[in-house]
């Protein structure tokens, strides 16, 4: 093989490598955009859920203690969710003091949303009581809104965590790490909140 032929092969290999790197970088960029979009969708549904919970607490249909607890949990979730530092970022466990431990703002948001889920499950644990509340037209609409947003929270969190897992797998590849194709983008984290469904609240499309 002549030097000219070797040069052609080398150039072709370099062009192929550049093309492969370009494809990988574009794929990673799309994945990061997908994670950001799914996180925004989840945040929107969490705010809708907390708003519906706050309205139910203010409606005066629950017992006084449940109303106070639910109002406090709902407004805590709304307060943290309305700040820029409340970004939802769940992470895998780290030892105490580890610099990779979850961010304070993210942790505060997760705790607030989980506390709201627990408070709602306690307030809406009895199907008979929920049916009695649903008999009121206004409260029935609030319960429907709560159920719809909660159901979408579960779906949105699932989609977000799947997008995060896919992005994490790509970012762990040797070529991505060596060439730092992720740029300055932080490693995305799954959202780990308690969003288990209340026993007494019918799911959308189901008869209570």
Helix/sheet category: mainly alpha
SSE order, one letter for each helix or strand? HHHHHH
Query: How many helix segments?
Result: 6
Outline the biggest β-sheet: none
Radius of gyration: 24 Å
C-alpha geometry: elongated
Helix content: 55-70%
Range of strand content: under 5%
List how many beta strands DSSP finds: 0
Q: Runs with pLDDT <50, length 5+? A: 83-104
Mean pLDDT: 83
What is the CA-CA span between the terminal residues?
79 Å
What labels would you give this structure?
mainly alpha
Task: Characterise the protein shown here.
- The longest helix is centred in the N-terminal third of the chain and has 56 residues, at 3-58.
- With 208 residues, the chain is mainly α.
- Helix 1 (3-58) packs antiparallel against helix 5 (137-171).
- The chain has six helices and no strands.
- The N and C termini lie far apart (79 Å).
- The chain has helices at 3-58, 64-81, 104-123, 127-134, 137-171, 174-179.
- 28% of the residues are buried.
- Helices cover 69% and strands 0% of the residues.
């Amino acid at each position: 093989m002549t030097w000219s032929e070797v040069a052609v092969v080398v150039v072709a290999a370099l062009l192929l490598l550049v093309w492969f790197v370009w494809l990988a970088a574009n794929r990673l960029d799309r994945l990061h955009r997908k994670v950001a979009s799914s996180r925004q969708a989840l945040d929107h549904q969490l705010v809708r859920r907390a708003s519906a919970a706050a309205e139910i607490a203010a409606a005066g249909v629950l017992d006084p203690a449940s109303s106070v607890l639910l109002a406090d949990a709902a407004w805590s979730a709304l307060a943290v969710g309305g700040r820029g530092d409340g970004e939802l970022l769940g992470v895998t466990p780290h030892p105490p003091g580890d610099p990779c431990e979850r961010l304070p703002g993210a942790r505060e948001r997760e705790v607030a949303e989980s506390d709201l889920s627990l408070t709602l499950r306690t307030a809406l644990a009895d199907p008979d009581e929920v049916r009695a509340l649903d008999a009121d037209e206004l409260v029935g609409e609030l319960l429907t809104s709560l159920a719809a947003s909660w159901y979408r929270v579960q779906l949105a969190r699932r989609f977000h965590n799947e997008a995060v897992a896919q992005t994490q797998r790509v970012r762990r590849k040797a070529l991505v790490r060596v060439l730092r194709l992720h740029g300055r983008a932080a490693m995305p984290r799954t959202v780990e909140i308690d969003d288990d469904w209340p026993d007494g609240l019918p799911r959308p499309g189901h008869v209570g």
